[in-house]
Amino acid sequence: MTEGAFTADPIFVLAVLGMTAVTYALRAGGYWVMGRLPITPRVRRGLEALPGAIIVSTILPIVLKGGLAVALCLVVAAAAQVTLRKEYVAVFCAAGAAAALRAAGL
Amino acid sequence: MLNKNVTLSLQGCVRGATMCIPVSPGIIALGLVFGTVAAQKGLTFLETIMINSLVFAGASQFVAMEVYSDPLNYALVVAMIGVTAAVNMRMLLIGASLRPWLGQVPAWQTYPSLFLLTDLNWLLALSEYDKGTRDWGIYLGSGLFTWSVWSLSVVPGYFAGSLVSDPKVYGLDVVLPAFFAALLVPLWKGKRQTVSWLFAGGIAALTWYLVGGYWSIFTGAIAGAFAGAYLDD
Predict the structure, then answer these.
(1) A residues 60-79 near B, CB within 8 Å?
(2) Count of domains in chain A?
(3) What is the ipTM of this complex?
């Protein structure tokens, strides 16, 4: 915690309001547009591919920065998810693996 | 009109909320993790509550925290809003698919309730609609329940996280990427994803080497979406 727990940096508030506005625009926007603009199969496929592409693009630089230890932890997380299908268990396993790897000096 | 008689009742809301109970451990765990990440990044308690309850979109909050750094400047604010938009782009689609369901509800009720739209209550509402349910309390109740659980669960996570001085010792620094890796698993269906992700990863890595920072999220995501769009079965 920095300074007071109940203070907020004005520029951070600006970021939050911007994020809230853009998220609401997307939540309501698709609903609003539907019926006015037909989504072609190509657009639909692109939109369907978007979440996975975002996730890959977010993780990869973290792996490149973090090296072998981080890469191994993500393999643990993915393996846990494949077998157990519970995100929070996978996260817990990965954090445990990271702690163990660091303790071992990797 | 094919689907008339969309109603709203308290019973429907309660049923919607009840249907969320089995998944609530997942929501709570994720909220705890977000609180921990926020504390690690040095957000104040009030800032954490604000971003968590107002944005109310887990994955995008995590990505925005990856971009965040203290002190914050206007370029970073734009980047935080940009990655939020990119991660939440899917809401355009899920919102669009609710049109037949909520289209008959008065607009002054639908539009405020769309603030509560998440993957969870969307999935619940849509599967109930397919079964013939026409009480949109399912959507509203599950949304309100999810929002309340999400808003509360961040609090203990925040205070636990601010007690930890070195996140690396406990492996807390991999919590975020591990969560993303786990989310990726159920999204994989076959060749389409493999190709799209290879494009996304290749462009993201290239951008990261050349430019650095968070631009790789944009370039990689767009490359992956295009690959997905133009890959025919």
Answers:
(1) 60-64, 66, 70, 73-74, 76-78
(2) 2
(3) 0.78
